[in-house]
Amino acid sequence: MIGRILFIVILSCISAASARFQSPSPTPPPNPETHRWLDIDTFSLSTRYRFIENANGQTNSNSQQWQFMLHGRFKFDAKGRYSVVASLATGNSLNGGWNNTGWGTGDLQTNLFPKQLYFDARPVKQLEVQIGGIGVNNGEGTEISGYDNDTYITGERVIVRASKNVYFDEISVTSAFIGDASHPSVFRRLKHLDRSNYHQVLLRKQINKRIGFSADYTFESGIDTLRQAVRTKLPETRILDSLLYEDYERIDPQAGYGFVLTGEKKVTSKFTLTGGVAKISHVMFNSDRFPRGERLYLIAAYKLSREFTISPVIIRAVGPLSTPTTPQTRFEIIGSLNVLEMMHHARIY
């Protein structure tokens, strides 16, 4: 019952937002007294229809889902050098971000979980230290060949941003624990702070206004992986605004590689197209949209108003698949309401 009520609330908010087609006016300045203590960077409600068909022609999923995301920080000082960062979200697994409404495939899911909770210290501009339940760092790459955006790890990270003294804009070193995929709550995972089965060293550089890249070495539970990503802006081509190439090489065990080539074009001020081709050769904690196999994909995003965006998604496997039950065709249509933007506009926050 709770899930259905929340889903109806989401649809009501979406209907109200989508009724506004006028050009957005400038967002009013935030409340400075509130921002002294609290910074919210994400607050959204979303719903999606999802259809997945396997290689054998059977329907894997045909359902309506809902998503809640809230992420922010409590600041101990006015400049935000020392803070506690936390998030609250749907999703009943480590790399899951959606709950079932009970309409279609899957039972009703109503749980919300604290999925990140960590202490963040920036004593100087060039240094940042994170300790606790922290998100993964994909660099310039995405969750397709890297780690799912919903995945987080339990441990420590040190980030150095001193491009004047070293070549790279960012040097990130992480030691953490990843696992317990069925326990998404951070309070079930903080006990692993004294364990470590995940290590990453990541380098990032913006070469010029057009080109940026990142490269990292990751060790995860005995698996050694190298990842690289290069993002290039191409506005003069008029066909694409940007092109992103990312790949990974698993060194040991089960050596192999995968890659993703993504193009993006802002067709109008409200309409953006993103699409490309992906090859994933291993089972990983990457996006569940892209299991093993080769796939073509296209994502459209249309901003109906300042607060509301609708996004159809189509992903189609090409070539042979590992098993008959591997997803072959995936279609989604997502409606997302930016609650934070609504709060800005209403001068609530």
List keywords for this structure.
349 residues, mainly beta, Porin, 16-stranded antiparallel beta barrel, 9% helix, 52% strand, disordered N terminus
Helix content, binned percent:
under 10%
Number of domains: 1
CATH hierarchy class name: Mainly Beta
- By DSSP, the count of extended strands is 17
From the N-terminal CA to the C-terminal CA, the straight-line distance is: 30 Å
CA-atom Rg in angstroms = 21 Å
Beta-strand portion reads over 45%
User: Tell me about the biggest sheet?
Assistant: 16 strands, antiparallel, barrel
Coarse shape: globular
Order of helices and strands: HHEEEEEEEEEEEEEEEEEH
Which stretches are low in confidence, meaning pLDDT under 50 for 5 or more residues running?
Answer: 1-28
Q: Describe it for me?
A:
With 349 residues, the protein is mainly beta. It has three helices and 17 strands. It has a 16-stranded antiparallel β-barrel. A hairpin with a 3-residue loop joins strand 12 (242-252) and strand 13. The two termini are 30 Å apart.
SSE layout:
Blueprint: H1 2-18, H2 32-37, E1 38-54, E2 59-75, E3 82-89, E4 99-104, E5 113-124, E6 127-135, E7 152-160, E8 170-177, E9 198-206, E10 211-220, E11 223-233, E12 242-252, E13 256-266, E14 271-280, E15 293-303, E16 308-318, E17 327-338, H3 339-345
Antiparallel strand pairs: 1-2, 1-17, 2-3, 2-4, 3-5, 5-6, 6-7, 7-8, 8-9, 9-10, 10-11, 11-12, 12-13, 13-14, 14-15, 15-16, 16-17
